[in-house]
Amino acid sequence: DAKTTQPTSMDCAEGRAANLPCNHSTISGNEYVYWYRQIHSQGPQYIIHGLKNNETNEMASLIITEDRKSSTLILPHATLRDTAVYYCIVRAYNTDKLIFGTGTRLQVFP
Amino acid sequence: EPEVTQTPSHQVTQMGQEVILRCVPISNHLYFYWYRQILGQKVEFLVSFYNNEISEKSEIFDDQFSVERPDGSNFTLKIRSTKLEDSAMYFCASSGSSGYQETQYFGPGTRLLVL
Asked: Which of A2, A109, B68, B105 is deepest in the core (most CB within 10 A)?
């Protein structure tokens, strides 16, 4: 399984864009990058996923580098409710399971 | 928006007792999963289930654990004889199909405390 590396924690001012980086240098060509977040001890919440193209939905944007070795999740206008642990997961093609790391703890402050 | 639901939200049990955790997956989903998260640790995969069969399981999912789809809407996780180390949040998830392109949607979890 491709390993991901994320910063342990980040801060962001409310109303500003939060840019959360993820390195996945061993990703294979057919593996997707998924982002989930977990607020307190609630169930992981799906945010977005992508293969090679940049993706955008109502929650966030996902920017994947051309070599696919890293990606950035962008929350365009962070709110206090975006305070959570954000997980970058490389989804292997031959397994059902999601492998969660320790993620990035994002603290949005007023 | 459809969502995965889980009951109970909290369960306290004595060591050695059996517990059943219940989940109602999203209605048109066919693939179901259980994960757990021990306090302060990572979310860990336990098992995936499709067409009334386990399709994949982790090393954690030993003979003490079983899963079942008893009817058309529920998906359950049974722990036969609970241990102290089974204390954790248990999350159910579902997806429309299998494969690495399919998003798994998680429920809110059941907090299990074994005394």
From this structure: B105
**Is B18 exposed, middle or buried, given 0-12, 13-18 or 19+ CB atoms closer than 10 A?**
exposed
Q: What is the pLDDT of residue A92?
A: 81
Q: Do A43 and B31 touch (CB under 8 A)?
A: no
Please give the angle made by the CA atoms of A30, A92 and A57, to the nearest 5 degrees.
70
CB count in 10 Å sphere of residue B60 = 15
Q: Count of CB contacts below 8 A, A vs B?
A: 58
* Distant-in-sequence, close-in-space partners of A19: CB < 8 Å, separation ≥ 6: A72, A73, A74
Distance CA A108, CA B33 (A): 31
How confident is the prediction along chain B (115 residues), in pLDDT tens digits per residue? 789 999 999 999 999 999 999 999 999 899 999 999 999 999 999 999 999 999 999 999 999 999 999 888 899 999 999 999 999 999 999 998 777 678 999 999 999 999 9
Please tell me the distance from the alpha carbon of residue B113 to that of residue A100, in angstroms, as a whole number.
Answer: 22
Q: How many residues does chain A have?
A: 110
What's the gap in Å between the CA of A102 and the closest CA on chain B?
Answer: 6
Chain B CB contacts of A95 under 8 Å are 56, 100
Residue showing tokens 């248990």 = B90
Closest to A44 (Cβ–Cβ): which among B43, B99, B100? B43
Q: Are the beta carbons of A43 and B99 separated by less than 8 Å?
A: no
